[in-house]
Amino acid sequence: MTDDHIEIRGLTKRYPGGDPERPALSGIDLDIGHRHFVSLIGPSGCGKSTLLRVIAGLEGHDDGSVSLFGESPRELCRRKAVGLVPQTPALLPWLTVRQNVALPSKVNRRAPRNGDSPDELLRAVGLDDAAHRYPHELSGGMRQRVAIARAFGLRPEVLLMDEPFSALDEFTREALQIQLLALWQSRATTVVFVTHSVHEAVTLSDRVVVMSARPGRVHEVLPIDLPRPRDREVVSGLRTNDLERRVRTCLQSAWESGAAPDDLIPPAGVR
Ligand SMILES: Nc1ncnc2c1ncn2[C@@H]1O[C@H](COP(=O)(O)OP(=O)(O)OP(=O)(O)O)[C@@H](O)[C@H]1O
Ligand SMILES: [Mg+2]
Fold first, then answer.
1. Can you tell me which atom of ligand 1 is nearest the CA of 50?
2. Any idea where the ABC transporter domain is (predicted)?
3. Residue 11: enclosing H or E segment and its boundaries?
4. Which pLDDT score, from 0 to 100, does residue 77 have?
């Protein structure tokens, strides 16, 4: 059955000109349940962003299959049922912050639903004061928050987020994590979330997928059986610490099992 979850089987992706022996993704098998929150974590270059772009229907693949609740990524993309917050926020530079956030409902010719007006979305990410500014007038973290507000407004069935909070200070990050969990729990959204933070992966997710690099593979999938809501007591509890330790151990073995990047090996004659 593929219509009740995201099903990825034997997924292999090679980029033109890349090492054919070490595809960006190799034999990825992954199941993500409807309305689940899954994080991808792994060394730089292990293919996390590539996997998100394949799921989003923005990149093709060479072997294997991807089914999103019975549909192909391109079908879901065509229905505008998938939202992607990319690693580098893609805002239209000639539109204000407010206009950028309002763009999806304008393009889809759909009035924003309750709670999804551009002003409400900007308030949710703490940017109500910046509504009339242009992207070039914002910091990197502010741009990232505009991209997040825009993705929230889409009300996607599948929300793909690529290190969305990496450029944010600790307090804004925590506030947005709470916002994200509230959004995920109140709407029928499945979230696939990329992060380099073990703490973030554990405290947000139902499962953490640890990937290894060169080629990009699923190294291990760890279930996170912490109760929800993930309040302060849960987040700072012993069980959370224990799970974080397990993810770290797994990351260490994923790092050791991957081939060293060629550019970390000095060319002959260089010491
Ligand atoms: N457009 C592209 N053309 C060629 N190779 C690419 C392209 N995009 C990514 N790659 C290669 O594919 C591999 C996986 O890259 P990807 O960006 O998916 O990694 P990542 O896990 O997201 O890394 P990071 O944590 O640094 O963001 C890398 O070896 C990268 O060089
Ligand atoms: Mg990436």
1. 18
2. 6-238
3. strand 5-13
4. 87
Which of 82, 59, 60 shows the shortest CA–CA distance to 69? 82
Better pLDDT: 263 or 76: 76
Encode pLDDT of 157-176 as tens digits.
999 999 999 988 998 899 88
How many domains does the structure of the chain reveal?
1
Residue written as token pair 């998100």: 52
Please give the residue range of the domain that contains residue 73.
5-81+156-264
Instruction: Look at the chain and count its residues.
Output: 271
Instruction: Determine, yes or no, domain membership for 93.
Output: no
Q: What is the pLDDT of residues 51-92, one digit of tens each?
A: 999 999 999 999 999 999 999 999 998 888 899 999 888 899
Residue 269 included in any domain: no
Name the amino acid, one letter, at 112.
Answer: P
In the structure, ligand 2 is a single-atom ion and the residues with CB under 5 Å from it are: 49, 87
Digit-coded pLDDT (tens) for 4-38:
899 999 999 999 998 888 999 999 999 999 999 99
Sorted by sequence, the CB contacts under 8 Å of residue 30 that are 6+ apart come out as: 6, 7, 8, 11, 209, 218, 221
Residue 270 has pLDDT above 70, yes or no: no
The strand pair at 217-223 and 207-212 is best described as antiparallel
Pocket lining: 33 vs ligand 1, CB cutoff 6 Å: no
